[in-house]
């Protein structure tokens, strides 16, 4: 039986500097802390708002401690209505 990994969604507010460095930095930090950058991640080029799926709050916090391209991260809570 395969284990399912729930990914939490986070809104990242990116700095409006170092635009070409954002994606490589986030990919590198995610891999450093045990996450993985998927091609389905919602990065909007020059937009300051990115939505990332990150496996845990710990990974999100560690990413924010090390990044120079992101200012804040916000957990996006979703409701599952049956």
From TrEMBL:
Q: Which organism is it from?
A: Pan troglodytes (Chimpanzee)
Question: Per the record's keyword annotation, is Metal-binding included, yes or no?
Answer: no
InterPro entries per record: TRMT11_N
Provide the alphabetized UniProt keywords.
Answer: Methyltransferase, Transferase
Q: Where is the tRNA (guanine(10)-N(2))-methyltransferase TRMT11 N-terminal domain?
A: 9-71
Listed GO MF terms: methyltransferase activity
Listed GO biological process terms? methylation
The transmembrane residues are none
UniProt name for this protein: TRMT11 isoform 6
Gene assigned in the entry = TRMT11
């Amino acid at each position: 039986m395969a284990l399912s990994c729930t990914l939490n969604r986070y809104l990242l507010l990116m700095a409006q500097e170092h635009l070409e460095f954002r994606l490589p930095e986030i990919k590198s930090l995610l891999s450093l802390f045990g996450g993985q950058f998927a091609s389905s991640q919602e990065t909007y080029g020059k937009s300051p708002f990115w939505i990332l799926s990150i496996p845990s709050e710990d990974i999100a916090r560690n990413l924010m401690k090390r990044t120079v391209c992101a200012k804040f991260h916000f957990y996006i809570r979703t409701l599952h209505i049956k």
